[in-house]
């Protein structure tokens, strides 16, 4: 029986009992809020912790923002939990006290540390039992913006997360006068187990943007019939959305009027963390360009944009420099544009910014179905106005190679057959290629699920409703709905690591992994096999292998894929400046490739960071051998 | 707890000892390119370029075990089982009243129920269905219940097999084999064949389509055909097409789980069934104006 846990199931007596036991056995200094005040009101926002010993108390209580309230899991009495601030090179002991009446855990997202402290129950440790304490002692080997969250059940959705910032040992390569942590998340009054059940039994349950006879979508009858014929929804952008979610910044919904101060002329560093369970956000501050300086905690060469899409679990540090007095809207619009998280960057307390209206929701396109690279006979690849433009496939005869940053290359020396032009510089003017709107009606005749295209490693079954016919590398794609906005938007190919890596090795081997799913049944998996089917059989690597992993997305949703314990380099055409990341978005019907050096031994989790996708089975374990003579 | 943390610390510091004496010979195979001629800073590292032609390293194999070495295999066991159970093997219970309605028509007004539900995982489910109808002031005309094993056989289809028990009239037990799922153009289809303990073979095909008018208002055309391989006079069933129903319902989803509706349904008995009906003094063509509720939980 799948248990729906009541919101009221937390036993107060249990909690106080375990608290007392904890206090008795460990003789810890107990803060006032931890002494029997659990079950009360949870505070919005977070405190800061630092030092060699950091203590997190996981409890529960009632959370409220705007008109929405409900049960939440709080850490040290707040949602989000406290900001942990460390310094590169220091020794730290992270202590987690579980005051819930169920198992809990904390995963330190993006941190390099011995695997047994990584905090994934069933993979790296047994979990933290009610009333128990878990300690992760390690030396901090990096700097940057990260976060932490529960890896137990669906606790993360209920508030069990917080930011983690590590200051560099030496001078910071980024100059700034002031900083603000921007932790994006969602709050739902509905219990996550109930959300999961509704997703399973009712496709599209949470969407109020479905195609209908009276919608405003610019979408012909033929196109609608084609989607119907394929039993797919072009509106399937986000599984859970407003109004079920209140989108939050630092635990504050739009009604809270969160203000972030600045003084004119200051360089303000925004450390943006997507700590949500299910939501990709489009971030912009109308009137203020953002200079991206860090991605997933790793310094990158500054790149100025007006908007960026941040996938679940990603982080971006940006610099903004408002020169005049005033109030600027920090608008974090959900990718499906059903709602917005809001904060005001203001030079005068109480002065709120005007927020932009939600834009029209985007629609999925043929490219998102993995048909983007098909030759339709008339050279048409994209579907203008409906999202994805053809990021990669192109007719080379139409291209001016001189414009592509190849001027310095000696082509005679190169084997062009080995080059994927998909990874070319993003400044290539894709729009110059002739693009007639192709005949969608004919597209319906194409095979949505040609399983002969799949390698043997993929288990074909009812859990796969689509196979990308021609999955292109779309690291140059800025994200659903942002490919035709009239301003600069970040994409992965614009990310270059700050430092050049001359020691980069060629991959020793390659592997391909397919992201698979069935929207109707809400089944999600890697290679057609759910975590429950793979069980104890991890993806195995030798110590210090160099592996190129190609992720092929055979679904129509964007998946943020996260590898625990180490950083990989996104193969984005930047050569020795490939950016290091812990999470990579694989666009719908597309591929993304990363190189990883497997020098962090142990067992690590590898999963889609959309919480309900992971919970449905889109997860694997990665096991890296210990060095033999270590 | 403390000694375990200490052990973990020790293991942790061992685990992170860098291995410096690693041979990199195998990584030097760049023979396909002349590096002296190329500007590496501008060279794209291509996603589709095969790895240098080094022999493919044989990947190691075996179960997860690193955490066992630190925390103990027994300690890990329960959390590992929970991890696998939670991540993919979820079991669900679902109940749907597809139609629960009051039917206004010539003669006595009537009622109808059509419910179904399941308990199970993604692939295997126990499925149950019940439908029945009658007129007020009379005994229940038709009532049946089905218990089925349902297995996902394709992305959009379940194969279902089990038994059906008729609860009214000359009661019968049937073996059932059917297919339920979503066909192209989003029609929900439920087709089943029934073989009764009297040897009668019948079949039923139902199709529904949800046309969303607004986010809350849904127009649902529905068709049902009952077929029989032979005359079954005691049930009033004739060989061939026994009867045909066409309905149109307009429902308002107050929440997706609860949607009242109004509609109209036309029912015809055809062929021998029509004759059986006439003989029994019934009208072989009936128009029902319906009001009802669709719900699930």
UniProtKB/TrEMBL annotation, chain A:
Keyword set includes Cytoplasm: no
Cited Gene3D superfamilies: Cupredoxins - blue copper proteins
Domain Plastocyanin-like positions: 68-168, 244-339, 506-622
Residues covered by region (Disordered): 397-421
Signal sequence, renumbered to the chain: 1-23
Domain of life from the UniProt record: Bacteria
Compositional bias (Basic and acidic residues): 397-418
Keywords of this entry: Copper, Metal-binding, Oxidoreductase, Signal
Signal among keywords: yes
InterPro entries given in the database record: Cu-oxidase-like_N (IPR011707), Cu-oxidase_2nd (IPR001117), Cu-oxidase_C (IPR011706), Cu-oxidase_fam (IPR045087), Cu-R_CopA (IPR006376), Cu_oxidase_CS (IPR033138), Cu_oxidase_Cu_BS (IPR002355), Cupredoxin (IPR008972)
Name of protein: Copper resistance system multicopper oxidase
Native species: Parasphingorhabdus litoris
């Amino acid at each position: 029986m799948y248990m729906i846990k009541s919101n009221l199931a937390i036993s107060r007596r249990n909690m106080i009992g375990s608290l007392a036991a904890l206090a008795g056995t460990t003789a810890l200094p107990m803060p006032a809020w931890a002494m029997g005040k659990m079950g009360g009101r949870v505070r919005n926002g977070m405190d800061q912790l630092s030092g060699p010993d950091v203590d997190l108390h996981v409890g529960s209580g009632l959370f409220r923002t705007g008109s929405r309230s409900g049960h939440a899991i709080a850490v040290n009495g707040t949602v989000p939990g406290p900001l942990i601030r460390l310094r590169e090179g220091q020794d730290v002991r992270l202590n987690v006290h579980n005051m819930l009446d169920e198992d809990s855990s904390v995963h330190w997202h993006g941190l390099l540390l011995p695997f047994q402290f990584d905090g994934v129950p069933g993979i790296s440790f047994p979990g933290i039992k009610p009333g128990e304490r878990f300690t992760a002692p390690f030396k901090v080997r990096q700097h940057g913006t990260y976060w932490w969250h529960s890896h137990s059940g669906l606790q993360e959705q209920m508030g069990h997360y917080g930011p983690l910032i590590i200051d560099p040992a030496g001078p910071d390569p980024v100059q700034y006068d002031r900083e603000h942590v921007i932790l994006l998340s969602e709050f739902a009054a509905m219990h996550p187990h109930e959300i999961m059940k509704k997703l399973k039994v009712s496709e599209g349950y949470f969407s109020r943007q479905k195609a209908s006879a009276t919608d405003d979508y610019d979408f012909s009858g033929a196109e609608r019939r084609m989607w119907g014929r394929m039993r797919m929804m072009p509106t399937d952008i986000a599984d859970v959305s407003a109004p079920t979610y209140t989108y939050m910044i630092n635990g504050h919904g739009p009604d809270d009027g969160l203000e972030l101060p600045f003084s004119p002329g200051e360089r303000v560093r925004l450390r943006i963390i997507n700590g949500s369970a299910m939501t990709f956000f489009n971030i912009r501050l109308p009137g203020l360009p953002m200079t991206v300086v860090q991605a997933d905690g790793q310094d990158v060469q500054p790149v100025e944009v007006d908007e960026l899409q941040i996938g679940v679990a990603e982080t971006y540090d940006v610099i903004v420099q408002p020169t005049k007095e005033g109030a600027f809207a920090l608008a974090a619009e959900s990718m499906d544009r059903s709602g917005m998280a809001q904060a005001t960057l203001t030079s005068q307390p109480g002065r709120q910014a005007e927020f932009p209206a939600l834009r029209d929701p985007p629609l999925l396109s043929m490219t998102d179905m993995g048909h983007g690279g098909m030759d339709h006979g008339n050279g048409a690849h994209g579907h203008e106005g409906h999202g994805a433009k053809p990021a990669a496939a192109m007719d080379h005869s139409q291209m001016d190679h001189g414009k592509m940053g190849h001027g310095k290359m000696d082509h005679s020396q190169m084997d062009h057959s080995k080059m994927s032009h998909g990874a070319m510089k993003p400044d290539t003017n894709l729009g110059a290629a002739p693009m007639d709107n192709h005949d969608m009606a004919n597209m319906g005749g194409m095979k949505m699920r040609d399983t002969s295209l799949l390698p043997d490693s993929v288990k074909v079954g009812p859990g796969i409703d689509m196979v990308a016919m021609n999955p292109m590398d779309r690291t140059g794609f800025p994200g659903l709905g942002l490919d035709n906005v009239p301003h600069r938007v970040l994409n992965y190919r614009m990310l270059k690591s700050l430092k050049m890596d001359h020691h980069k090795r060629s991959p020793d081997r390659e592997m391909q992994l397919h992201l698979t799913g069935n929207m109707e049944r809400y089944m999600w998996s890697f290679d057609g096999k759910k975590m429950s089917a793979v069980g104890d059989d991890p993806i195995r690597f030798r110590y210090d292998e160099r592996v190129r992993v190609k992720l092929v997305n055979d679904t129509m949703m964007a998946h943020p894929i996260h590898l625990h314990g180490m950083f990989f380099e996104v193969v984005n055409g930047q050569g020795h400046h490939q950016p290091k990341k812990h999470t990579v978005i694989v666009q719908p019907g597309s591929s993304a490739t990363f190189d990883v050096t497997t020098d962090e031994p142990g067992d690590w989790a590898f999963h889609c960071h959309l919480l309900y996708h992971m919970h449905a089975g889109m997860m694997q374990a990665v096991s890296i051998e210990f060095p033999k003579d270590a | 707890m403390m000694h375990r943390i200490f052990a973990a610390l020790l293991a942790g510091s061992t685990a992170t000892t860098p291995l410096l004496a690693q041979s990199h010979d195998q990584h030097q195979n760049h023979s396909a390119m002349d590096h002296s001629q190329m500007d590496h800073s501008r060279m794209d590292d291509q996603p589709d370029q095969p790895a240098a032609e080094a022999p493919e390293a044989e990947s190691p194999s075996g179960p997860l075990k690193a955490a066992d070495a630190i925390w103990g295999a027994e300690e890990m066991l329960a959390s590992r089982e929970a991890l696998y159970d939670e991540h993919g093997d979820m079991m669900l219970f679902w109940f749907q009243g597809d139609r629960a309605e009051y039917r206004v028509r010539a003669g006595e007004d009537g009622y109808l129920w059509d419910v179904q539900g399941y308990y199970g995982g993604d692939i295997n489910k126990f499925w149950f269905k019940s439908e029945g109808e009658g007129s007020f002031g009379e005994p229940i005309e038709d009532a049946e219940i089905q218990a089925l094993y349902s297995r996902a056989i394709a992305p959009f289809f379940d194969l279902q097999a089990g038994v059906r028990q008729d609860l009214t009239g000359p009661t019968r037990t049937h073996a059932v084999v059917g297919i339920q799922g979503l066909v192209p153009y989003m029609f929900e289809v439920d087709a089943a064949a029934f073989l009764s303990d009297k040897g009668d073979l019948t079949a039923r095909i139902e199709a529904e389509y949800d046309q969303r008018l607004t986010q809350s208002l849904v127009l649902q055309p529905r068709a049902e055909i009952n077929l029989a391989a032979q005359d079954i006079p005691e049930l009033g069933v004739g060989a061939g097409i026994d009867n045909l129903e066409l309905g149109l319902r307009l429902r308002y989803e107050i929440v997706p789980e609860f949607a009242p509706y109004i509609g109209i349904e036309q029912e015809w008995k055809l062929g021998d069934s029509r004759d059986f009906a006439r003989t029994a003094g019934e009208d072989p063509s009936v128009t029902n104006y319906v009001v009802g509720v669709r719900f699930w939980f």
